[in-house]
Amino acid sequence: RCVIKELESLGKALYGAKLIAQRFQLRNCSHHKNPVSGSTCLLSMIEDGNPHHFFIATQDQDLSNKVKRKPGIPLLFIIQNTMVLDKPSPKSLAFVQKLQTNQLVPEYQKQSIGELKEKEGLVKQEGEKRRKRKRPGGPNPLSCLKKKKKKTQEGQEPSAEKKKRRKRKRNR
């Protein structure tokens, strides 16, 4: 509601933006009696770790920089006539990585798993790791010609003797 109030106060210059904002569902904010600027309202709505999973769509660089500092908030902006979803901020990536590592296996279980592997002898030695040597291959089978088969059957002479030709005499 604060964003629409701000767009109405700015006049006819941002009438198109106001129409676009009115198409979307309105969310109630804590300061509906005395509206504040749109950027402060949006920041207050995502303050506590974005519990409602909001996306922020803005062209304001200051607001987008403030949003990028908080993890887990997707950012949209417009380039020419297309809406673009910005890549996750480094804070968001670090936050997700931290969550994933904590959720997989707790630290005390990692230690006990390591001890059990050592006890059973399943731990790989660093010195044992060797790369397999690549050996040269043969010729390309697609580039090789097939060998010709000789047709020799019983009762037939080899092909050299079989083909005796008569020479023609020329009359002059």
Brief summary of the model shown:
By secondary structure, this protein is mainly alpha-helical. The protein contains 7 helices and 3 strands; from the N terminus they run αααβαββααα.
How is the largest sheet built, in terms of strand order? 1-2-3
What is the percentage of strand-forming residues? 5-15%
Helix content: 25-40%
Q: Give the averaged pLDDT, no decimals.
A: 80
Shape: flat
Secondary-structure class: mainly alpha
Low-pLDDT segments, ≥5 res = none
Organism: Oxylabes madagascariensis
Biased composition (Basic and acidic residues): 116-129
Pfam family, one: UTP23_sensor
Subcellular location: Nucleus, Nucleolus
Task: Lay out the secondary structure.
Elements: H1 2-10, H2 15-23, H3 38-45, E1 56-57, H4 61-68, E2 75-79, E3 82-85, H5 90-104, H6 107-120, H7 159-162
Helix pairs in contact: 1-2, 1-3
What report would you give on this structure?
The chain is mainly alpha-helical. Among the domains are: 1-36, no CATH class; 48-119, no CATH class. 39% of the residues lie in helices and 6% in strands. The chain contains seven helices and three strands, in the order H-H-H-E-H-E-E-H-H-H. It has helices spanning 2-10, 15-23, 38-45, 61-68, 90-104, 107-120, 159-162; strands at residues 56-57, 75-79, 82-85. Helix 1 packs antiparallel against helix 2 (15-23). The radius of gyration is 39 Å and the shape is flat. Residues 130-149 form the UTP23 sensor motif region domain. Residues 116-129 have a biased composition (Basic and acidic residues).
